[in-house]
Amino acid sequence: MSCVTHLNFEVKNMSSTYLKVTFFEAGGEFEVCDEWKYRVVSFAVSEIYHKGVKSARKLAEGSKTVYKLGLDLEGVGVDFMPGDTIGVLPRNDESLVEKIFIRLGVEAQADQPCELGVSPNSGKKNAVVPKHLPVRSTLRTIFLNHVDLHTPPKKLFLKSLLGFATGSDASRLTSLSSPQSPDYSDFIASNPSLLNVLETFPSLTPPISLLLEHLPPLQPRPYSICSSPLSHTLEITFDVTGLCTKFMEKQISSKNQIAFYFRKPGLFRLPNLANPVIMIATGTGIAPFRGFLQHWKLANEFGDVWLFYGCRFRDRDFLFKDEINELMCEGIVNRLNVAFSRESDSKKYIQSEIDKRGADFVDWVNRGARIYVCGDFRTVVKDVRTCVAKNLVKYGGLDEEKAEDFVKGDRFIVDTWN
User: Fold this and answer.
1) d(CA 170, CA 175)
2) 136-150, 167-181, 404-418 — which one is most confidently predicted on average?
3) Strand pairing category for 221-224 and 49-51
4) Which residues make Cβ contacts (< 8 Å) with residue 123, sequence separation at least 6?
């Protein structure tokens, strides 16, 4: 629809940008895009679902708050299995977006309809509007749902800001964006967000169009499903640490919907109990294994199952403790070893629990066990891989090269995050 009134909106130094932002009178006829068509949905095998929170339970609180969240499954026509993941589409914090608008002096235009296009005078060859930006929307919608406001800026972005800063700010930006900058690594080590950058350089007044050219897309966050489809529930587990988890925590109290989709399955799926299964997890890495165990119980399936779990405190963050102990009594789990890393009298890590039982561990491997590991790649997965390889050398008679081949092979399956 075109019966709208154009507003004059001067943007400083627009010639250095290739995007053009045209604002229209609020209240006029303006057909906005379906914004969900512009959301990034990596590895999607389903449509985007918008579902309310059906259940929520706090599993741990203190230095880390952990939730088990159940999403409404009505109308979801996807056959998922334990070990599968969903991608949750987060939303930026409204107060953060408002602070950015105020800092840029565009709060008055935040809710006005706008159209994104390519400036005919940009001089940029083959310029197009980035695929993650809806071409007809509002600044507020774009900044809330489509751009990443937290990823530290790349040098190219800092360089693009030079024409919009003065004095010492311009000098500092010149230094930071130079190819051999000695300060860039220290600058991004503090994980500066867009607002941090704007506050660090008070004279900086970049146009909205420039920011939209450089801000990366807001990415979905993957979460392992921690329930069995036989339970007729879709549950995930998360600790409240970042943008998406804080967003989901807010949805619990506000009772608003969460947008998510099902991701393409990988190798980390419900194993066949014809062979032994060894599961190794720390913290919320227990999530997919809880789904495995629940499924085996509901399907009345039994086999050789050994669970190693690491957490900080016995009574604070041993997730699904009662369930796991019950599954031990029922014979779903045959062996359970837990390491508590912050207990003052017995600080232990999961690798030491494996080392103590190295001979038995290798015996299970020799009987065809598949090893599943879920945890932080930088610490847990790396250390567990080294530990398993060491025990295969010590008790399995393998040389170091063959042990390394095993922990890189298809019987050592990893689900990890950074």
Assistant:
1) 9
2) 136-150
3) unpaired
4) 18
Q: Can you say how many angstroms the Cα of residue 366 is from the centroid of all Cα atoms in its chain?
A: 36
Relative to beta strand 370-376, strand 66-71 is unpaired
**CATH of range 277-417; options 3.40.50.80, 3.30.450.40, 3.20.20.70, 3.30.70.60:** 3.40.50.80
Radius of gyration of the chain (CA): 26
CATH 2.40.30.10 domain locations along the chain: 38-90+219-262
Question: Which residues, 6 or more positions from 266, have their beta carbon under 8 angstroms from its beta carbon?
Answer: 415
Numbered ranges of CATH 3.40.50.80 in the chain: 277-417
Please state the rounded mean pLDDT for residues 45-51.
Answer: 97
Q: How confident is the model at residue 281 (pLDDT cuts 50, 70, 90)?
A: very high
d(CA 276, CA 369): 4
102: CB partners within 8 A, 6+ apart: none
Residue entry with tokens 């989901």: 248
Q: Residue 2 pLDDT > 70, yes or no?
A: no
CB neighbours of 241 closer than 8 A, spacing ≥ 6?
64
What is the full DSSP assignment across 388-410? HHHHHHHHH---HHHHHHHHTST
- The answer to whether the CB of 208 falls within 8 A of the CB of 106 is yes
Which two three-digit tokens encode residue 185?
């690594």
DSSP state of 47: P
38-90+219-262 maps to which CATH number? 2.40.30.10
- Whole-model pTM: value is 0.91
Question: At CA 113, angle to CA 109 and CA 115, rounded to 5?
Answer: 105
State the virtual CA torsion across 6, 9, 15, 17 in degrees, nearest 10.
-90
Neighbours of 167 (CB within 10 A): 10
